[in-house]
Amino acid sequence: MKEDDPPGTHDLRMVVQQATRHLSQAGIETPRREARLLLAHVLGTDLGGLLLRDRIETALLEQFHALLARRAMHEPLSYLTGRAGFWSMTLEVSPATLIPRADTETLIEALLDLRPDRGDVRTILDLGTGTGCLLLAALKEYPQAWGLGVDLSPDAALLASRNARHVGLSGRCDIICGDWAQAIAGRFDVVFSNPPYIPHMDLQGLMPDVRDHEPHRALDGGDDGLDCYRIVMRALAHLLRPHGLGIVELGIGQDRDVAALGREEGMEVVDIRRDLGGIARALVVRQAGEP
């Protein structure tokens, strides 16, 4: 603290510089940005509001340093702030769920391209809903639709329910705790799933942010990474309405294998969509033989 600093406060620029250096030494890829995001979170503002501040009180600085230490241990930033952006929403996140990623928005983009008429989708199912990001984003885009989200984790199901309330969609969806589609008898216009798809032996090679903090049950796809796709593709036969679409997220290089699993279960590949990195990320299927 400089001699002319007001008592109990600290220069914000110095705090950011020191925090950036600390995160950089810990191997965080965007240390300055993350330091500023954490600081904005502690101060109850955003990055724009941070520009209007030049001091931070000691009590808040201590909170910031505690979060900074956790980030330096590669605890994900979104778990520290409790929030993540997806589509046009800000959602609550917790270690009970995967953190929504921009790549997953490819599934929403695929649906919008294939069903541009916003009245064409009335029922949506999201298997393994997690935060509810896919279900809620689709409901935002299709105002006449109702949706159902299913997750094996009670904590994830509760979190998705809270997110539905936060974004004003709790009246248009239900979130239940269940094992994939075992308790579901209805049929849907759209079925989403972002299942676990990392081969079991590859889990230890993931970035520490993911490997050490995100839930393994939402990552581990079995020996070949395809266990959950087998379940989902088998279920689509009794979940899809006529002309309904099944849209699943793909891991890197899994498009051919998952498409083959779909064909074995009577599905026809409608489309394979690539994300911004050029990776085949969304597989779209329907019942084979439909016009």
UniProtKB/TrEMBL annotation:
It catalyses: L-glutaminyl-[peptide chain release factor] + S-adenosyl-L-methionine = N(5)-methyl-L-glutaminyl-[peptide chain release factor] + S-adenosyl-L-homocysteine + H(+). It comes from the Bacteria. The keyword Membrane does not apply. GO terms for biological process: methylation. GO terms for molecular function: peptide chain release factor N(5)-glutamine methyltransferase activity. S-adenosyl-L-methionine binds at G128, T129, G130, T131, G132, D151, W180, N194. Signal peptide: none annotated. Its EC number is 2.1.1.297. Methylates the class 1 translation termination release factors RF1/PrfA and RF2/PrfB on the glutamine residue of the universally conserved GGQ motif. It comes from Gluconacetobacter entanii. Belongs to the protein N5-glutamine methyltransferase family. PrmC subfamily. InterPro entries: DNA_methylase_N6_adenine_CS (IPR002052), HemK-like (IPR004556), N5-glutamine_MTase (IPR050320), PrmC_N (IPR040758), RF_methyltr_PrmC (IPR019874), SAM-dependent_MTases_sf (IPR029063), Small_mtfrase_dom (IPR007848). This is Release factor glutamine methyltransferase. Keywords: Methyltransferase, S-adenosyl-L-methionine, Transferase. Substrate binds at N194, P195, P196, Y197. Residues 114-198 form the Methyltransferase small domain. Residues 16-82 form the Release factor glutamine methyltransferase N-terminal domain. The gene is prmC.
